[in-house]
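Quarterly update, task 2.4: manganese (II) ion-bound model.
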Amino acid sequence: MHQGDAYLTAHREEHLKQLMELLRIPSISALSEHKADVRRAAEWLAREMRRIGLHRVEVMETGGHPVVHAERMDCPGGPKALIYGHYDVQPVDPVDLWTTPPFEPTIRDGKLYARGASDDKGQVFMHLKVIEALLAVEGRLPVNVKLLIEGEEESGSENLERFVSAHADLLKADVVVISDTALYARGVPSLTYALRGLAALEVHVVGAKGDLHSGAFGGAAPNAAQALARLLATLHRPDGAVAVEGFYDQVRPLSQEERDSFAALQFDEQAFMADLGVTALPGEPGYTALERLWARPTLEINGIFGGFQGEGTKTVIPCRAGAKITCRLVPDQDPERVLDAVEAHLKAHCPPGVKVEVRRGGGAPAVITPIDHPAIQAAMQALTEAYGAEARFIRSGGSIPVVGTFQRVLGAPIVMMGFSLEEENFHAPDEHFHLENFDAGMRALYRFWHHLAENMR
Ligand code: BES
Ligand code: MN
Ligand code: MN
């Protein structure tokens, strides 16, 4: 038996106990009442990194939540890899929908249930255990590694871009390795070579100087909630395409080759619909669901607010209403240009009698990495061996905001070797991680470092 596999198997119970300790820390980055918990998770990681033999371990300030940095650079001539991940997690509401409490990790049915189990504490932890295993079994790492584990990914990595630019030398690497994406499906080893980007904004509609009695004023005074509904309805065409002028201008078209490679995955739209409990998959015409999920931009209304929400009836004309909107972006869209286009559209379609205010939020570009790079090939080899099935190339519809910054500042290829599954409820109640991928994933990462050393010397 492979010596690394044997070590990981022998220490499995101990590893799971340690991971559960990390999962018990409620490091929710978006909620200020958890600020101290977020730091506690960073310190837990730093302690563990020192214990397994990483060097220069430091909890570093960013202006927001801290990052944990560490390295092991004692492989002269070997490639340098930057391992990135995040130890912060999403809020847990609605908390009463969890079968067991979010910060009391529990194993049921071969799955580890806890907030952060798959996104992303579980996967960050796998990297630490693989490093520990390599050092224990072989006494050295086959490559040089740097680690950057952040605490603000789930709230947009707002301070990390500045941190990465300011510490470009410290982080300099030949390849970036990330385990924070999903496999295509259970038992299908897959490597993500593209992520979508993101652009966020809020729109507020303002009518009269205050809320009005709808008997006294209805029929003459503008209604902010109705104006908002009309305005939001202009954002998409009846066929499902985004109606914002210029929205698609910078979009890199899908090549026939890529469309063929998506088609080869035989994505089952019927099963997908059944899974979601819906009867249609609305979206931009002319593309399959998988193409729309992975390689086409979207504009989504994430929430609508305004007007009377209480029990019973209230005959009121609301004077304010608003919506939160995000766009998923694809190569080569510039988030700022997309926000310009959406802002201009909202202002140009302002219904009579109200004002439209736009509050721009953050953005992050999409990323796509070349699949013929030797580092990517090393990952494909490792995945194929560890899972005993041919690894597939996939894209992801999700976003990891800092990856575009890595690409720009470090100019390195991005190996996105993630082991979660989209059915694992990340960001939702009952988040869990299939332990089969905890095991196979570590076996893949162990092999990956060796293949990377061979392929990049
Ligand atoms: N790990 C996810 C990104 C992801 C999701 C990759 C699904 C592959 C499949 C990440 O933690 C995440 O949730 N990103 C957010 C970014 C946002 C909070 C700025 C996203 O994609 O919405
Ligand atoms: Mn994540
Ligand atoms: Mn997430």
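Highlight for this quarter: The first helix runs from residue 3 to 10.
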